[in-house]
Amino acid sequence: MNYPKVLTIQDISCVGQCSLTAALPILSATGAETCILPSAVLSTHTGGFKGYTFRDLTEDMPAIAAHWQKEGILFDAIYTGYLGSIRQISIVQDIFAKLRKDGAMTFVDPAMADNGVLYSIFDMDYVNAMKPLCFGADVILPNLTEACLLTDTPYRETYDEAYIQEILDKMTSAGAKVIILTGVTYKPETTGVIVSENGQVRYYEHKRIERGCHGTGDVYASAFVGAYLRGFSAFDAAKLAADYTVQCIENTLGDDSHWYGVKFETALPMLIESLRK
Ligand code: PXL
User: Fold this and answer.
1) CB atoms within 10 A of CB 2
2) Nearest atom within ligand 1 for CA of residue 121
3) Cα–Cα 20 to 30 A to 192, which of 114, 123, 180, 247?
4) Whose CA is nearest to atom 6 of ligand 1?
5) What integer pLDDT is reported at residue 75 of this predicted model?
6) Is 270 exposed, middle or buried (0-12, 13-18, 19+ CB in 10 A)?
7) DSSP characters for 65-94?
């Protein structure tokens, strides 16, 4: 039985259905043994709540990794999301070097911006520090805002295929291998994901739901990583993760009190079913 041991490194936002509180259940549902390394503990995510607490765990991370190394604990895949500080980026690079089994894959979701703006705790120094981590990974999963920041491209609300191709070319020249670029919208009623592998570019277009939702990038990346580790191709995993994320958003529509995240748990049966195909 294919039973990968995956390590995911991102924050715990105790309330808010993003980062580890989404990645852990979603990866577990895809059948992967899921180990976690929390980068920070926040009372909530930073996207709309006021006065959240933030405990930076940078100091704990090297000691946790050193213990695993001493115990001979290695991973089949490492997937990183929201990190709490620039120093954590180099700690993650060290973990990539030391805690991977032969042939283990690295997945990096830069998780630092959306809709043209950086999340509140980040600045351009953080963006620049993210570049080597992203361009050295086996798979990167930026949204369009993050892809623009990583390639020093001005963010645009409307664009054509040539604009997207230029961003893909810049990332590929910088070393990116497989690029999963989310939130690419050419028509008002649809959106989609671009999968670029060794210069081959494919687009999966799907329904666009007007309501912007927090945490969907994390839900998407977690479902993608789980499906990929189950043996789906990058394109099929990108498609499956998109269909799952759309279902999560649909299951949340109509409940304005649930503005802070998506009800991803309610669509886990659908995710598990689609992994059987
Ligand atoms: O979903 C990305 C994310 C993860 N973690 C924290 C966040 C956000 C987005 O705002 O604030 C703490």
Assistant:
1) 9
2) 11
3) 123
4) 45
5) 98
6) middle
7) HHHHHHTT--EEEEEE---SSHHHHHHHHH
CATH fit for domain 5-275, picks 3.40.1190.20, 1.10.260.40, 3.40.30.10, 3.40.50.300? 3.40.1190.20
pLDDT-derived band at 187 (thresholds 50, 70, 90) equals very high
| Predicted model pTM | 0.98
Q: What's the gap in Å between 132 CA and the centre of ligand 1?
A: 21
Q: Which residues line ligand 1 (CB under 6 A)?
A: 11, 13, 18-19, 42, 45-47, 82, 111, 119, 215, 217-218
pLDDT in tens, 126-155: 999 999 999 999 999 999 999 999 999 999
Calculate how far, in angstroms, residue 277's C-alpha sits from the geometric centre of ligand 1.
Answer: 31
Question: Which residue CA neighbors atom 10 of ligand 1 most closely?
Answer: 47
**pLDDT score, position 127:** 98
Q: How many CB atoms lie within 10 A of CB 198?
A: 8
pLDDT higher than threshold 90 for residue 198: no
Residue 205 Cα to ligand 1 middle (Å): 25
C-alpha 9 – ligand 1 centre gap (Å)? 13
- Mutation pick for ligand 1 pocket among 14, 17, 46 (CB with most ligand atoms within 8 Å): 46
For all residues of the chain together, what is the average pLDDT? 96
In this predicted structure, the answer to whether residue 121 has a pLDDT above a threshold of 90 is no
Q: HSE on the CB side for 26, CA within 13 Å?
A: 35
**Cα 56 to averaged position of ligand 1 atoms, centre (Å):** 14
What's the pLDDT at 152?
98
Whose CA is closest to 216, among 17, 15, 39?
17
- List the domain boundaries for the chain: 5-275
